[in-house]
Design a protein that fits this description.
Blueprint lengths: L11 E4 L3 E6 L11 E6 L1 H11 L4 E4 L1 E3 L2 H12 L8 E3 L6 E7 L2 E7 L15 H5 L3 E5 H6 L1 H16 L3 E5 L9 H12 L4 E2 L3 H8 L4 H8 L5 E4 L5 E6 L2 E6 L12 H14 L4 H15 L12 H7 L9
Parallel strand pairs: 1-4, 1-9, 2-7, 5-6, 9-10, 10-11, 11-12
Antiparallel strand pairs: 2-3, 7-8, 12-13, 13-14
Helix pairs in contact: 1-9, 9-10
Family: Belongs to the carbohydrate kinase PfkB family.
InterPro entries: Carb_kinase_PfkB-like, Carboh/pur_kinase_PfkB_CS, PfkB_dom, Ribokinase-like
Organism: Paenibacillus mangrovi
Amino acid sequence: MQQDTANLAPELVTFGESMGLLTAQDSRGLEYASTLHKSFGGAESNVAIGVARLGHRAGWFGTLGSDPIGTMIYKAIRGEGVDVSRAVLSSEAPTGLMIRENTAGKSSVYYYRKASAASRMQADQLDESYIQSAKILHVTGITAAISASALECAERAMDIARSAGVKVSFDPNLRLKLWTLEEARGVLLRLAEKADYFLPGLDELKLLYDVKEDESVFDKLSKLDAVSIIKGGPDLTYVLEKGTLTEVPYFKADQVLDTVGAGDGFCAGFIAGLLKGHSTVEAVRLGNLMGSMVIQAVGDWEALPTWEQVDAKLGHKVHIER
């Protein structure tokens, strides 16, 4: 019997901008595409959905426009079992939009999010008790990039969590279409100092630290108090914890259909692993498996597996076709 979690506080709390997503349905690009597929995406809501599918209570909040795209996103996230009780539908600004095309084997995204409802988030609107009741707060650098007030929200939420003993997970999610590297560098490295778990990509770190060698990256990270989880190594993820560097191999993917959402899947798996009481390395192993499973299907969040699917992949259950 499924446990009734309606009155229980989320174990994971995260927040940020979720946007409508329109994807061109042929390889000729947006200019010539005759149909667009409607969905939504957002790093933080993707992670919340992933954690919920892995059997843990997750809460997401943010500001959406009180428009058809916003209500679609709100209902879809809620329908995935994620608590959206602190999310807001605003009539003062629209829901952001992103449009994606895939041409010549490359994906390009065009954002229409300036002055969106989410960019108007204010730190004084944060529900402190909601954050304080969680076990983990997950924040991304995308929130920091969309506006000055959203950055203030990110910093304030991290401070609230840390003062309450709530662990803070931070994925820098560097997006150079949202700000310059120079703007991003100081902010993201400052936020990393507030995190208990720092989840960057290796290429991101080389840009942020302005270095080229892996050893220089690890040397910089060793000065942080956070446990650093470095994605994007040569078929592995690095874990730098208390001065010890551990390599955690990837899981082999049988096919690669869509790499979008792989990082969010990894974060969801890692956080769920921590919530299950796993060690950092075992949590990273679960994150690696999630990332491997996500890229074998299409969609920002649709491809995120359930715990039953993950458990079967780990060999704990046998799939019965009929």
